């Protein structure tokens, strides 16, 4: 084993899509980083366990110093806007308010879920994402089996918003995140998030009409949307082992580090 391998650290980023685990191995060696490997592990309904085991074997060939970040798709995540209240400054009150709002919207027990909150700005709504405790436990157990430090679990919409925050929060418009047959639509005015809508199936074939400002699109599709629509694509840079024209399927997995 060479000295470079001993000094390198691997960050495994896995996009949990509706029917696949889409994984990237990012190697960090002496201050430099690159995408060393990419792989997709397909699965059908109720068949994720086999894909998880195949992923663990794939991870085993990475350097011993490794961490994992899960990016969870809309098939396993929920999103909503938490309206602003001065009480939200207190985190305990904010969490209680979020649980109440979640149960009102989705008619599920909020105590069975883990919540993530976007950066808080006084006077504006806050983007909230959540996954089930059961899924959280599954992903944490997998990280332990694969001997990875669990660095994070984050839904895709939050990942995209955080990655392009500097662009989005400086304008009015609509963010459209397309992931397979799912489409998450965020209407916003700078930091103020007005509405979140999730669509699926045939509704994904068209983009929403802008109420004001610009429609921005982030997608893991290799084909472009119809040119007749007035929209601007959000793209990751082509460098360090990622080629945008070939690797669109890995866009969500790599949305954070690139």
Please describe the structure with a list of short key phrases separated by commas or semicolons.
single chain; 258 residues; alpha/beta; five-stranded mixed beta sheet; 13 strands; globular
Q: Which H/E pattern describes the elements?
A: HEEEHEEHEEHEHHEEEEE
Low-confidence stretches: none
Main sheet makeup? 5 strands, mixed
Terminal Cα span? 28 Å
From the alpha carbons, calculate the radius of gyration and give it in angstroms. Answer: 19 Å
Question: Major sheet: order of its strands?
Answer: 3-2-1-4-8
Percentage of residues in helical conformation: 10-25%
Mean pLDDT across residues: 84
Tell me the fraction of residues in β-strands, as a range.
35-45%
What does this molecule look like?
It is a single chain. With 258 residues, the chain is α/β, with parallel strands linked by helices. The chain is 22% helix and 36% strand. It has a five-stranded mixed β-sheet. It has a five-stranded mixed β-sheet with strand order 11-10-9-12-13, with no helix packed on it. β1 and β2 (20-29) form a beta hairpin.
């Amino acid at each position: 084993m060479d000295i470079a391998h001993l000094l390198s650290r691997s960050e495994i980023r896995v996009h949990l899509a509706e029917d696949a685990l889409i994984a990237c191995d990012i190697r960090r060696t002496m201050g430099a980083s690159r995408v060393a490997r990419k792989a997709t592990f397909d699965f059908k309904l109720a068949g994720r366990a086999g894909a998880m085991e195949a992923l663990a074997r794939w991870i085993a060939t990475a350097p011993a110093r490794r961490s994992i970040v899960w990016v969870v798709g809309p098939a396993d995540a929920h999103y909503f806007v938490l309206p602003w209240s001065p009480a939200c400054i207190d985190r305990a009150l904010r969490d209680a308010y979020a649980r109440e709002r979640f149960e009102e919207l989705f008619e599920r027990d909020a105590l069975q879920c883990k919540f993530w909150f976007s950066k808080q700005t006084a006077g504006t709504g806050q983007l909230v994402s959540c996954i089930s405790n059961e899924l959280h436990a599954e992903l944490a157990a997998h990280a332990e089996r694969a001997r990875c430090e669990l660095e994070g679990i984050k839904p895709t919409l939050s990942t995209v918003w955080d990655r392009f925050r500097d662009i989005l929060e400086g304008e009015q418009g609509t963010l459209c995140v397309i992931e397979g047959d799912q489409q998450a639509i965020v209407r916003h005015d700078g930091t103020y998030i007005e509405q979140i809508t999730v669509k699926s199936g045939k509704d994904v074939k068209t983009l929403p009409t802008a109420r004001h400002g610009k429609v921005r699109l982030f997608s893991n599709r290799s084909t472009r949307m119809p040119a007749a629509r007035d929209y601007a694509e959000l793209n990751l840079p082509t460098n360090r082992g990622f080629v945008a024209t070939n690797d669109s399927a890995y866009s969500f997995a790599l949305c954070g580090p690139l």
